[in-house]
């Protein structure tokens, strides 16, 4: 792991045991244009988590479930930050959320200004991927695969510079195809 940043070492350490991810859908298939926000506005962790929760299609019009999901995300952050370094956070709940999800969920948000997220490298977070899944297998597979894709500096730079939501999907698809070869 020589030459890796602390965040990249964290990725590798956490997900080195998850070897079987090929059966999962591609991350780029999980991302939809309406689940991407290139201009998150909230100045803090709770606010940005709320913005991301508002983008969950399965929760449209269900304020009760939104609140439950939001609180589960906050509870997870109290255990340990999901700010993994390199300007990235991957907020997710501690346990799968099968109550309202029938499929794995991936939402992307970008904070141009950046925000304090308690990241491992103590740097502001700009790129946020909200992950949720109805089962533990998909949950771990998504975390593992996304961490591998985000190790690529080209992907991170592209996500920071993207002007259109479709670019985000393409960048994730290209990065994913490189790491799953």
Characterize the structure shown.
- Helix content is 44%, strand content 14%.
- With 181 residues, the protein is an alpha/beta fold.
- It has a single domain (33-179), classed as Mannitol-specific EII, Chain A (3-Layer(aba) Sandwich), CATH 3.40.930.10.
- Mean pLDDT is 86; it is low at 10-24.
Outline the fold blueprint.
Elements: H1 6-15, H2 27-30, E1 36-37, H3 45-53, H4 63-79, E2 83-85, E3 88-89, E4 105-115, E5 125-132, H5 136-150, H6 153-161, H7 165-179
Parallel strand pairs: 1-4, 3-5
Antiparallel strand pairs: 2-3, 4-5
Helix pairs in contact: 1-5, 3-4, 5-7, 6-7
Give descriptors for this structure.
Mannitol-specific EII, Chain A
Short description:
The protein is of the alpha/beta class and 181 residues long. It is built from seven helices and five strands; from the N terminus they run H-H-E-H-H-E-E-E-E-H-H-H.
Figure out the total of helices: 7
Can you give the mean pLDDT? 86
| Poorly predicted runs | 10-24
Give the fraction of residues assigned to helices: 40-55%
Specify the structural class: alpha/beta
Helix-strand topology string: HHEHHEEEEHHH
**CATH class membership:** Alpha Beta
Strand content: 5-15%
What general form does the structure show? Answer: globular
Number of separate strands? 5
Side-by-side strand order of the widest sheet: 1-4-5-3-2
Task: Please summarize the sheet with the most strands.
Answer: 5 strands, mixed
- C-alpha-based Rg, rounded: 15 Å
For the terminal residues, how far apart are their CA atoms?
Answer: 20 Å
Going by CATH, the homologous superfamily would be Mannitol-specific EII, Chain A
